[in-house]
Amino acid sequence: MSFSISRRTLLRGTGVALALPWLEAMRPVAAHAGPAAELSGPPVRFAALYMPNGIRADTWTPAQEGFDWQPSQTLQPLAELRSDVSVLTGLWHKATNTGDGHYVKTGGWLTGTTITKTAGIDLNSGGVSMDQLVAARLAEITPLPSMELGAEPVSKGVDGNVGYTRVYGSHVSWRSPTQPLPKEINPKLAFERLVRASSGGGSPRADRSLLDQVREDAGQLRARLGSSDRYRVDEYLESVRALEQRLDRAARPGGPAWKPLAPLDPAQAPESDPADHAERVRLLLDVIVMAFQTDTTRVCTFMFGNAVSGMNFSFLDGVSSGHHQVSHHQNEEDNLRQYERITRWHVEQYAYLLDRLRQIPEGEGNVLDNSLILFGSGLRDGNSHSPVDLPVLLAGKGGGRIRSGQHVRCEAKTPMSNLFVTMLDALHTPVDRFADSTGAIKELLA
Amino acid sequence: MRRSCRPWALLTIGLIFPATLPSRFNAASVASADEPAAIAEASRAGTAAPHPEPVPLEMPVVQSLLATHCTDCHGGGADEGGFAVESLAELSTLVSDFDTWQIVRQRIHDMEMPPASSEPIPDGDRDALVQWIDQAIRQAACDPSIPRGPAPLRRLTRNEYRNTIRDLLGIHFDASHVLPSEGSGGEGFDNAAEVLLISPLHAEKYLDAAKMALEHAERDERARQNLTLGRTDRGRGRRGGSGDRPQESSPPAAAEVDDETRAHRALQQFAQRAYRRPVNDEEITPLVQLYKAARADGGTFESACFYAMQGVLISPHFLFRVESPNETEQSVPLTDQELAVRLSYFLWESMPDDALRRAADAGELSDPEKLRAQVLRMLGDTRLLDASLSFTGQWLGTAELGRTRFPDPELYPWIDDPTRTAMRDQPGYVFAEILRTNASLLELIDADWTFLTTELVRLYKIPRDQLQGEIRQHLVRVQLPEGSIRGSLLTMSGVMAVASYPKRTSPVLRGVWVLDNLLGSPSPPPPPDVPLLDEEQVESGALSLREQFAVHRANPTCATCHDRLDPIGFALENLDMVGRWRDNDPAGPIDASAQLPNGKVIDGIEGLKQHLLDQRDVFIEQLARKLLGYALGRGLVAADLCALDTIVQRVRDADYQAHELVLAIIESEPFRTKPRIQL
Predict the structure, then answer these.
(1) Which of A185, B243, B530, B555 could form a disulfide bond with B526, CB atoms 3.0-4.6 angstroms apart?
(2) Do B462 and B321 share a structural domain?
(3) Which residue range forms the structural domain that includes residue B289?
(4) Single pTM value for the model
(5) In terms of DSSP H, where are the helices of B438-527?
(6) Rounded to whole angstroms, how far apart are CA atoms B528 and B507?
(7) What's the complex ipTM?
């Protein structure tokens, strides 16, 4: 409840006019140089895998630093991928060291900013997520600018205990501070979208005529509304525009910028709505592999679950609890054991994705070499909700720009945004600064 | 302030403090002599005294309490966190510094303030302060000059989209499954305008959904004919309901006019139903152009019509609920057509039907009697169930069953999809029935009937010979045997499933569930580093749950909240993780009684029912708040609290009859009017 005019209203009040300069300010420095030259050659992809509820801290960090790192108990699934994966220790998001235990740390995971506490009216992440900077940069290159996936539907309701809408805990990709991107949770629908996007869909010309009509309707409607409502219509117009661009790109003569090695085979469509969590995760990770392999998009985020997810992991041996419940382990041995097992399961899934990407040859190497695949959580120990020393894994060589396969121990409380700056550079999206960044992580630079 | 439309009544409760808290409750009990005696000892969350004597407000008392407990850091020159109690010295600050008052209330209520390092506020003072702030704010809320809540443009939710497409096209097809899943905001519902976001993905998904739905309609003989001939409301083909929705007169036979005229008519009819308002020729012409383009491409009359209809279904006029902007200085009443749309999405989560649209077109909804008649008609329609399932499922959290919450498959391998669906939908069927039959809303807490399926009868272990009538695969109303505990939200399988951990019950989760959802009194999150239960010991039965909790509550930090939560949860311990009755848990026989901090004992499920009935007005206010938030599709603002009080008062005066709640909401100012637009 509020009498005051919300920040969001103010933003709406001036509509896009106010929002845009801000976006411009955040826009990558090289954005206007034209994508042609430096984006030719094998694409560089980016995926971020978000795991809710943190990690068991004492079994995560490898003992050795540098290139000789040996997997800790929880990182065992990465043993075979050691030379492709870096472990980063010492990073944090200072801006998420406030608010509540989960929502601030999820909504701000890829933005490095502080979300606004609200039941909805002031929804604001404080920033654009780094994946969306890359997507904006590569938008003209691939059929889909980005793809957002997740294994749980958006959590309903407002968390009355802490006063945040659960929308925050269900989204990590923010196209603008007020626009979180919805995630696809149905593997079949995600796959079909890839097929449609890469083939241009059934009837691009007929669809274009419909969209022209919609734009006229929206324009007329917009003119009749107050500014706060215009904002919503503008969002819809943007959405229509995004679809038009996709149709146009598909119809463009000369084909895509990068010739994919493998076309999508519609017959590979996965199961629609698997009841089993593990099955759903695998199928969605397969969709990421297909998207990257076919160059349908180069940017993807994936949420294993939402903040505070109580996903029942009793399908794992020795686990009898929900994820969030067991993350509040209180140093009880049995809880810690289950917590570790659940975390390790997530690392296993990460390893599965990396291994699949590594098996696809591309140029001199493989798709993983031409990717950066981030894995992490918004907090470290689920019992204390601390965002200090976040669990961070980074795989792939970013097309040769990143040195992989090391355990990098950064100075304590190094901004996670420094990692983002480093990655954005490798992803052809250089920025001077991202959130609270203070520079690149030099150890990662090839 | 003093122009308030509300008597000073509620403020009196807070005015007797600080010294004599017990007398506060005595005063309440005297004032409510016609209520059951137990109401006098109602929870500390507070039962509003129905008709106390008006006493003038004494702000100095509040100030002295704040001064006593807060000024070390927030007064006398200190203003830590930018707050000093002196800033709230005047009554006018209830409006001008409303947000600050709310924060003060929240901090005190959640025991975040004073901090642990300071002298704590005695419980009585804390409750009194919180209660006074609540009520003083409410009083301020009735000042006609304070800002009204917004009436924002909103797109259809997934559920609304599904139902609207079904009713618009006359098909049984869920076109919403391709749309992105949605969160919620405001009072906790997915229709909260502020979280009905639009992403770049949406246009693409809406086009997908429109194509799929129209392809389905084109294959359906009856739907195809109705739509291309411009008939309405036919072939919805739903079971039951009023069933006698009249049709508009059939258009002239097709042979009399050319195709383009027919297309024009069909598209006009379609567009005005889809846009939920009359449409003009300027809006139809472009649609006819789409039709003509498709014909020129070799399409048939029908396929070209359906193509143009795609244009309607992705138009913002269809996807958004549009109310014409109010450019005057004050709130103004909705037009009849706008009111019809609010009514239908509130009571049906769908578009107005012919009868409602005609009533609106004829200006009948401005007539209170005719409006009332329409509302009662709508409450008798089967579409009420759509809204009830949606509202109840989100209010109680049971909608999450089969979405993000699943009963443990190892413990309950026999809970299949139909069982889970019945568990999920039982509360919504019961609430719809209460609305439909104008029963007492208190039957949500205690009734001698419920809705059951064959699966639920088995789950609840009700002897079949004690049930009359036929039990089916779908939920049907059943008279419960004498003494059955099953006629209550509290004992429903779906509720127990969302208020338990996968492998064990949790008195805490259940206590929080009851306080949050039924009494509107959320608890603060546990402080960091609270000792948790030892799962192993609970599951193995080495230590009973209750013994574990006793250890837990010995810690004073924990006890403040758990003394309030746990007795409620313990009362439900005879129900397992899916609501089956049990006499024992792994540690032995269950003791389902516990004492509240005020000494009141809650003994088992019947005791808990009575405990809630003792606080019936707190429960009704919570239900009314939720339903008003759902009806308005936004979070409530201060001004809405004035309407809420009137609604609660009306329901109470009507002996808690369900129709009164719906009518009072529909007749409330925030539902009937739209505020000035923000330019």
Answers:
(1) B530
(2) no
(3) 147-381+636-679
(4) 0.84
(5) 454-459, 493-498, 507-513
(6) 20
(7) 0.83
